[in-house]
Specification:
By secondary structure, the protein is mainly beta. Helix content is 4%, strand content 37%. It contains 2 helices and 18 strands. The protein has helices at residues 19-22, 192-197; strands spanning 9-10, 36-38, 48-50, 58-59, 61-67, 73-79, 82-88, 99-100, 117-120, 126-133, 140-147, 158-159, 169-176, 182-188, 205-212, 223-229, 236-239, 245-248. The strands form 6 sheets. A 4-stranded antiparallel beta sheet has the order 5-6-7-8, with no helix packed on it. It has a 4-stranded antiparallel beta sheet with strand order 9-10-11-12, with no helix packed on it. A hairpin with a 5-residue loop joins strand 17 (236-239) and strand 18.
């Protein structure tokens, strides 16, 4: 598969106060480095374990970062139509060899507002989402995959928007609340066509969401959060202390 954009080099710099930025020596001890995983065959099969030998640079673009509760740093990014995940026990000095999430290349959105996302559960689960481009301008699907073995393997990706329409489902945001529930919210254009058929004006697009209460095994039906959102803006999401999330978007009044 050829691409018009050449892969870049992901470079991480941690800045600021706190344990992770100023005292990397307190990360996982050098005497017990994390094993590095290498994918072999389909994602559902077992993987081979290399001797410890983390890499210092990762090829790819459009990275997103998240810390686990064990202070392990995770990154999701895109390379040649593949979403990949790697992790670091030393706050970004070195990373494990990346694991591929989607076995078949896709047209993954990789711009500044719309890129692969990654979140961690309280156990060994790793959650990844992204927007897959579809034929047609400004169209796409919201995609999701999870790993229940600590990022060693990932399940086959699923499409979360449930309307089956080749329209815009884009700019997804991924979050996990204090109860471990998974939230996806995105910009959705499914309401605009029917409104125009009725002769009604429709401003922008809508914000839709889907929630999983079983660690990503299943998602509830899509729910409309609000109509008339900006159709090309990233959504912000943050977990509430006692469960649930706060979602912010640019609205058109």
């Amino acid at each position: 598969m050829t691409r018009s954009v050449a892969s870049g080099l992901l470079i991480l710099v941690l800045v600021g106060c706190g344990r992770g930025a100023t005292r990397p020596s307190e990360s996982r001890p050098a005497s017990t480095p994390a094993p590095v995983q290498e994918e072999v065959g389909p994602l559902t099969e077992a993987v081979a374990v290399r001797p410890p030998g983390p890499v210092t640079q990762i090829r790819g673009q459009a990275p997103s970062l998240a810390f686990g509760r064990d202070e392990r740093l995770w990154v999701a990014f895109e390379e040649d139509g593949l979403v990949k995940v790697a992790s670091s026990w030393d706050f970004g000095t070195s990373f494990t060899h990346p694991v591929t999430v989607n076995s078949e290349p896709e047209k993954v959105e990789i711009n500044g507002e719309n890129r692969p996302k990654i979140q961690l559960g309280d156990d060994d689960t790793v959650y990844v989402s992204w927007t897959r481009k579809l034929p047609g301008r400004f169209t796409g699907d919201v995609r999701f995959s999870r790993s229940i073995d600590g990022g060693t393997t990932f399940e086959a990706p699923r499409t979360i928007n449930d309307d089956g329409l080749q329209i815009g489902h884009r700019f997804e945001s991924l979050g996990v609340d204090a109860l471990g529930h998974i939230y996806l919210a995105w910009i959705d254009k499914r309401d605009r066509g029917p409104a125009r058929q009725r002769g009604e004006a429709y401003r922008g697009a809508a914000v839709y969401s889907a929630v999983s209460t079983d660690r990503g095994q299943n998602f509830a039906e899509n729910q409309r959060v609000a109509p008339h959102a900006c159709e090309c803006c990233r959504i912000a999401m943050a977990p509430a202390p006692d469960g649930g999330v706060a979602v912010l978007w640019r609205h058109i009044f």
